[in-house]
Amino acid sequence: MPGLLDVILGYDCNLACDYCTITPAMRARALSPEAVVAAMREGRRLDYDRVAFTGGEPTIRRDLLGLVRASRKLGYGDVKIQSNALLFTEANVARLVAAGTSRFHISIHTHLEPAYDALVRRADSFAMMEAGLRQAVASGVHVVVDMIVKTDTYPRLPAAIDWVADRGVPEVHLWFVSLTDGNTDNVESLPPMTTAVPSMRAAMARGRERGVEVKSLHVPRCLLGEDWRHAWDPGSQRVMVVTPEATFELSQSRLAGQGQVPACEGCEFESFCPGLRNDYLEAFGDAEVARVRGREPSATGKLRLPVLARA
């Protein structure tokens, strides 16, 4: 069965985003090029036919072009680069495409310059990101923009969709902020889902108007109401994550939904919804899901049922 090999080359980055889960200690860890090639060979043996290079920030590695070329030689038909686009000059983008890159995923976090520079904690970086985004779109390969949904960004989501649409971006993914590793104690960054969902749904409506496909990656379908079709669970596909420490299925990642709560029983989405993340349950419990299902919250607000097999 084909699938995606998601390779975290290393955790170092040229930004220091205020919600980042990467700790200072993690930034020192990276895969060697030999380890990456070995993982890609094993991936092809197991019939993985797509590969993603992410981090950290993969474009700060001098061996990235060689790794992209190696992935194509090994037979990967789709090659994704996940980046903040700060180093996406015209020449760099052209080299990545010539080497075999077939899609760019670009994290823009938020679309307003002062807010962006404050969020990434690097002055004058917004102009570099925007220029890099334009170069990626101009290259002709598929471009996806990733936006973080957190307390200070979710109100601006509808306007952000207009911003990316004006720049020719066809697809946007909405990532709900996670309280893991380096962001564990940043509790104020995590809004209740029911607080953020109205802005998310307004962004989805704006996307439909502007011809931009908008996907939500972490909010259960029951909380999205009539927009539940915008929910997407990457872990429902065959995705193997390769990191400097371990290799595991994406469905087992702490950044993916990890379990259902008692109120999920009997839901029309029960057989394939991954539920909520542990960090979210620890912060807010299961009252939101229980309310929309017309049920009582569990006694602890954290009780989970086993994760079901993905459809």
UniProtKB/TrEMBL annotation:
The protein's required cofactors: [4Fe-4S] cluster
Keywords, sorted A to Z: Iron, Iron-sulfur, Metal-binding, S-adenosyl-L-methionine
Entry keyword annotation includes Iron-sulfur: yes
SUPFAM superfamilies: Radical SAM enzymes
Domain of life: Bacteria
Domain Radical SAM core: start-end pairs: 1-213
InterPro entries xrefs: Aldolase_TIM (IPR013785), Elp3/MiaA/NifB-like_rSAM (IPR006638), Radical_SAM_PqqE_MftC-like (IPR050377), rSAM (IPR007197), rSAM_sf (IPR058240)
GO molecular function list: catalytic activity; iron-sulfur cluster binding; metal ion binding
A Pfam match: Radical_SAM
Protein name per Swiss-Prot or TrEMBL: Coenzyme PQQ synthesis protein E
Species of the source: Plesiocystis pacifica SIR-1
